Amino acid sequence: MSILTSNLEVPVFYPTYDEFENFSSYISKIESQGAHKIGLAKIVPPKQWIPRKMGYKQKSIDETMVENPIKQEVHGKDGLYLVYNIQQRSIKLSQFQKLASSRRYVTPPSISNDFEKLEKKYWENLPSIAPIYGADVSGSFYDKSQKAWNINNLGSILDDLEVEYGTKIEGVNTAYLYFGMWKATFAWHTED
Q: Which domain of life is it from (predicted)?
């Protein structure tokens, strides 16, 4: 039985705009309601919250470089797998998106809404057609002026590293972007 078909329900929260403005306060609130108990919560932003006023169809985004993406070659079967992360040459995000949308790499459309079939297909086809995964790309697509829920401006204890010690730790107190496609597996990339 997979987590998708078990009895665990991921709690879903719908903060008001005022609640959403203060990250630390809202996290404390939902933790007091048990949001942390299964290690996962879904927080749906209020409709009036806009992380990027200019939208996402911009040349500046398309020109973002996905630095050294990895091809995730999987070998094995029956639950025992070995993954080779093979570094690829850097490509523009627009090229990565085109690749991810191609027939070779796209999620099978006929089962994309059936999670059990999708999970089964994932495991059955894992060793074939190695996906490309862009991990640990420094940056953010949020507007710099957006303070609410902007990874670069969360107002958390991690900010103290930079304020008090002048220390930036990439991906810890700075934002990272991740780019995936069908079968790319986050847990199988080399961690920092």
A: Eukaryota
